[in-house]
Amino acid sequence: MSAARPFATLRTVAVITALPLLLTACGYGSNSTDDAKAPAVAAGAKKLSADEVKIGYFPNLTHATALVGVQEGLFQKELGGTTIKTSTFNAGPSEIEALNAGSIDIGWIGPSPAINGYTKSNGKNLRIIGGSASGGVKLVVNPKKITSLKDVKGKKIATPQLGNTQDVAFLNWIADQGWKVDAQSGKGDVSVVRTDNKITPDAYKSGSIDGAWAPEPTASKLVAEGGKVLLDESTLWPDKKFVITNIIVSQKFLKEHPDVVEAVLRGSVKTNEWINANPQKAKASANAALEKLSGKALPADVIDPAWKSISFLDDPLAGTLTTEADHAVKAGLLDKPDLKGIYDLTLLNKVLKTEGKGAVDDAGLGAE
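Request: output the structure for the sequence above.
Response:
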């Protein structure tokens, strides 16, 4: 059964346009940008079954596997003579649209738009083929107004957008406190103020919000402005792990070019391994990539705490995807979706076996 009311069941198209649905991580607009320079291809390198592979990701720390893998040439090394064309996106819907249109073949994206894209196409447009990151989401508040979790009641707390991953998580947490909020309007025992992450720090400084349930680096930007971390979302999950970024692929591209998809996954696994073995170098590489994309690097008081709160891994944490979908259903933002077939971890597990690593599980949601 497909979802009749996807994550962003909004009242007007204007709101959908103004506040693009996004997971993870971020909501900095809705347009994609083709990167000017493709990674260098080694002379004489052999092409795979496709001349090029088009990958998409966000200029965000939760997408650091892509940022670092491209920056350090780790993907290109695995692809040989098949070139990478990269595009960056500021919102989940635009990346899903690009995947559907064939403008990208593989993408790094958060759980909410992946679920939404899959259910809206009746399971025909994408597959989740790997994990990338966990964590990196915090409730940051004004310590002059909020000193304990119970003080959140009656306050104005920002989330990136109606129905996005952080919005769903916050609505679920509110319900767990026994408080009531109308999911659509955000009005109730807590005022949920949907605010683009790009302007959340200014909204905090002006006093128009009292805090935010926000992803990194927005959360650490708020801390740099005097905010206090009241809750790290990871503490609400078993083993403190929950999916914040997945790797998705067009089903058409997966069918036609499995060798290319396998090479990208191998690059992702090796990038995550390098990130975890060299955290300081990897942080600097990610920041250098962000500077190229945005024109400005993150200051140390933002990137240092943000980086520490994110785990980079290959496991898509499939069980937590199901839980996140259940939270959206509980909030009234999603009809119970049929996610059977959303995962195809065959190639990832092949790569992991080759690298001497254990297989990962699809929580019973694998493709037949």
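Residues 1-31 have pLDDT under 50 and may be disordered.
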